[in-house]
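Slide 14.
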Amino acid sequence: MSTSAAESTVPPHADFERFRFNMIEQQIRPWEVLEPSVLDLLYVVKREDFVPAHLRALAFTDFELPLNLDGEVTGETMLAPKIEAKLLQELRIHPHEQVLEIGTGSGYMAALAAHKAETVWTVEIDPRLAAFGAANLARAGVHNSHVETGDGARGMIDDGLAGLIPRPDVAFAQHVLPAPAGQVGIRAGAVLSAAD
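Slide 15: predicted structure.
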């Protein structure tokens, strides 16, 4: 299915709750995402509010959505819902933990993590996506997330992030680096891993 064919086709009577239910039952549960707190959260954090407006009709589809903003191609995508849910389940985020996300994108994953963590720090290299993600998080009322613009993979270190981001001389993509109080999850291609 071409994303251009479905652009701007959200009918005014769209039943997003039914679409969300079908996404959870037909895509996410079959991927063995069965943790009740994760499944419940998918009803709370409205995915369609984090998708570029012209792709809202596709918010619950089982593929990555391009994060093109105002007609500009960013080259980045929003993960498929089952990948986001599986990652959230496998990370087992606890309320006292701080989370670092490299790649803010739409802000949806940060919003999910923020509902489980004390604080979420998210770093985005593309200023357009950083602004888009920050606006989505603010509109969704997520107050315990902080969006920074920078290159997290190169070790961008700021006051609040110093203990969470690797030093510039560490090849981030090749190492799992422990955060001060918890876990590090790395997405490399299609491989998801979580380490305590």
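Speaker note: Residues 1-8, 165-183, 186-196 have pLDDT under 50 and may be disordered.
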